[in-house]
Amino acid sequence: MEIKEITNKKIWEEFISKYSPQSLFQSWNWGEVISKCIPTDQIWRIGLLNNNSLIGIALVCKVNAKRGKFLHLRHGPIFSSWNRKNLSFFFAYLKNLAYENGCNFMRISPLISNTSENKTLHTVMRFRDAPIHALDGEYCWILDLDKDLNTIFSQMRKTTRYLVRQGEKKDIQIIQSIHKKDLDKFFDIYAKTAKRQNFVMHKGIREEFNIFSKDKQLILFLGYCQKQLLAAALIIFYNHQAIYHHSASIEQKIPVNYLLQWEVIKEAKKRGMKSYNFWGIAPEDKPNHPWCGLTLFKKGFGGRTVEYLHCQDLPLNLLYYQTYLLEFVRRTWKGY
């Protein structure tokens, strides 16, 4: 086996599509987003080959955070076969890469099932659960789109159906856009949403918009009532799934968000998507989780829970435990 840099976008995307099509943050375009929006970070696109046959890939990012440097593999790595031999060879290479770049730990979050077998496999590799909450859609709500729209609508929560119908009766207009001027409008209410809900605005949304929309993989949905923008959602279309990635809204009682989501579902069906990923939800055993209200909203459209293996850390030196303590306290304080 050997490790090589992958420079061909087509080869890269074909491998993801075959073995882990839901892994948005391993996509070629996501690597471009990181390169554009965080110039202090460094990325590698590496492949694991066995007899010149590609059997694994990883978009690896060196993160230079205040809490410490680390290698980050969001939604990765991806293997054609998850076994100890492949993992041992691959992570031995990554450990050397981490040491060469002064990293304190390695963090991975492959989108593989949260089974005892997968947990044991990573424990053997000396990984441990990261002290952060469920990020990056590792615990998410999925709506399958293999039924007709009437059936999908009928399987929504009764209250959700009612609010969608009410939205259709009101002077609400849902606009689809890939224009930068409309992204500025999104940021206007996104800043207000962040302040109201007390979260830090995501970096790189503008770069994400520019790069994914160029490949026709993104649409900005804008919800207006009487010419006032009340809600917006940035939806990514990647590998037969639509992803509810960023959103913003103004506090009001008009059901514009419900109608907006219904229009997203219809567009996803039109594009031949197999599922709509509503992204992260609150775990059922945490009734005080900050996402409980949002979770109730998402579940109203019907669907099912999908749970992947929790984010894993591989400590490389004692400085990692400073990061562990900081992130553990932060997660607890925020109620996650």
From TrEMBL:
<dbReference type="InterPro" id="IPR003447">
    <property type="entry name" value="FEMABX"/>
</dbReference>
<dbReference type="Pfam" id="PF02388">
    <property type="entry name" value="FemAB"/>
</dbReference>
<dbReference type="GO" id="GO:0071555">
    <property type="term" value="P:cell wall organization"/>
</dbReference>
<keyword id="KW-0133">Cell shape</keyword>
<comment type="similarity">
    <text>Belongs to the FemABX family.</text>
</comment>
<keyword id="KW-0808">Transferase</keyword>
<keyword id="KW-0573">Peptidoglycan synthesis</keyword>
<keyword id="KW-0012">Acyltransferase</keyword>
<dbReference type="InterPro" id="IPR050644">
    <property type="entry name" value="PG_Glycine_Bridge_Synth"/>
</dbReference>
<keyword id="KW-0961">Cell wall biogenesis/degradation</keyword>
<dbReference type="InterPro" id="IPR016181">
    <property type="entry name" value="Acyl_CoA_acyltransferase"/>
</dbReference>
<dbReference type="GO" id="GO:0009252">
    <property type="term" value="P:peptidoglycan biosynthetic process"/>
</dbReference>
<dbReference type="GO" id="GO:0016755">
    <property type="term" value="F:aminoacyltransferase activity"/>
</dbReference>
<protein>
    <recommendedName>
        <fullName>BioF2-like acetyltransferase domain-containing protein</fullName>
    </recommendedName>
</protein>
<dbReference type="GO" id="GO:0008360">
    <property type="term" value="P:regulation of cell shape"/>
</dbReference>
